[in-house]
Amino acid sequence: MRKIIALCLVAVLASSSFAYVPLSGINTQTNLGSFRNGATRGMFLEEVDIISANPVSLTEYMGTNLYTNWGNLRYANDPTSGGGVVTAVPIDAGADRAFTYDAAGRSQYFNFGMTGHPLSFIGLDSARVGVVYQNFGAKTVSYNLDNDAATGSGGSDSKGQWSATTLSDYDADLGVDRTRSQTSDLTYYNNTTNTQWDGGVAYKGLFLSDLVLGFSIARQSNITKRTTEGSKGYADRYLNDVAAQNVAVGMPAGARTGDTYSIGYADEVFDVNSMTQTDVLFQGRYPIFGLLVDAALGMRFQNNYNPDSNDAAQAITISGSEDLNTGTAFGAATPAQVYNTGTVISNRSNFDFNNFNIAATLLGNVTARAGLFTTAGAGANAAMTELSDDRKGSGPILRLEALKEMQKINLTGIFNLGTVTQNIAGKATLREYVATQLYVTATERDNYVMTDYTRAMEKNGDRKIGHMDIGGKIELKALEGMKLAFGGFINKEYDNSNYDEPNNTRETVSYDDGLAAVTPYAVVTTASKPGPATGEGTWVQTMSRTDKVTRETEITRYAVPVGTEIKLAKKWTFGCGTRYVMTKRTDKVRAETGTATTVTTQTPLGAAATVTQAISGNPSDSESVLYTETHGVEYTYGVRYNVNKNLTLACNAFLDTGANGAPAGNAARASLLDLDTYRLLAIQAVFHF
Fold first, then answer.
1. How far apart are alpha carbons 191 and 189 in whole angstroms?
2. Phi-psi region of 88 (alpha: psi -120 to 50; beta: other; left: phi over 0)
3. CA-CA to 453 of 20 to 30 Å: which in 37, 157, 194, 520?
């Protein structure tokens, strides 16, 4: 009966067995790495490597140990990273970096781990516990916010305040006749925090003397928060008639206020391609038919926040007035000054954070009924005002490992399988809005909504992420003072999304000149809209369409690692490893464009509405397939020194064959004496007590 219970426990208990061991890489938590794991390409492990990956193995270590390390990530030329790895975390980060790192590859990090027997205080002498905490973060800036390249980081700032005033003297009397002022007060930065907790516990002999039970939790969060807010302004002031009458078009006597504008930027704190992931795993180990079997089953909970977006709000709001001379345009006997006052919601591309030439950019061609408050219509300048795309899901993880110990060799087989299914339910809104009021004469008052455009977009579907690993390792034991192992592994990952994209747009245009006599908007065509040239009335157009998108990414890696550890002296051990990796990747994108239904309602002022309906855009179905294949060879080495029974020190080196990521110019320099050759140099200390 006891054997049946043990077998059942082995079948249902689980953990991410061998998630850190060589090259499986399917778990983004592959970054605890000790000096042995890194220096030997993961062929040999220390206890800090398996705390959450294979907690039952904690029982193989004795005493209490404290781990910490220091390293310098020099640059991001990493043949195992990027390439669209579906987890957005470099494959086998533990074997290469000993920590998850940012895309720039230069972050400093904090690493702390401890293993021991704390449960012995409550009588659980056979229990062994381990925990590791790692963290790094950075505040990064992207824009020059203060118009000074000497400040901040190459001119880029988290917060910028800037102002400039242009003074003009038109009559050469050494007095100021006109002032133009520009101001800017903006905030824009990213705050990134990457944190990981890993904890595991193992207990031997709870039900059977040979049965080991394990439990682990791995929690990782890679969060980037973008903070942005602020405004810019422009004001033009004439101080006397000399100034007003000497501008390019000549303004009327008594004119004192010119163009004024205020530009407001989005005030928000927004997740940029952020992710949280938690693995909860149970594991059992038991000898079966001469094999030492580890069986693991668990759940992964993974949330992605705005994975496809880099900016939530790209829209700006502009309000102000254009100073117009209407003498020529309306046949007045003398120049008359009027103001075209308006509000605009538009794309910030022409008024970006580092654009300080506000006057020239905003004014453009300022003539009657032209200038800033114009529009191309149909959403040509639409920008995102809000975005929501949080993808949350979970799925099972199954890991199996079997070890066969023989006289001169150990054989290990590995199998990993897991999936995560996420619900895609994203929403985004794009807006463009231009509305003005223009006082032309004492009686005429133009109210003109040039466009009021809204586009509501959705994504409704699901995303499936999965992996499978299969491989083996051969470890040679009959070598004096030397450990040698090699293996072969196949890792397959997929990331498939299938979703509908409903699109609904609405655009409104209206015009009323404010006069009692009505100039009706009477041209009834879908292309005609009301306005000063076409008449008064309202034009409304709606469009609805649903597209379908399927994205499939499949990555297969074939890897052959070799690792060795050599006893150099009583207290010195040398470790080194190499690995050949061939990566094949397939990307498929299929897009199905639906039929658009357009309804146009035209209502001349004071007349009945005319409604037309049209079907536009023939349905289309396109598919693209991209195949890529890469080959890489990686090298590591390290040396550790057992200072005494309480302290072990190690130095590790992880190399790239092409220095600085520029084979054309620097590959010839790659050598042991060229520090740019090293992807990471790290020093680790282990305190035993």
1. 7
2. left
3. 520
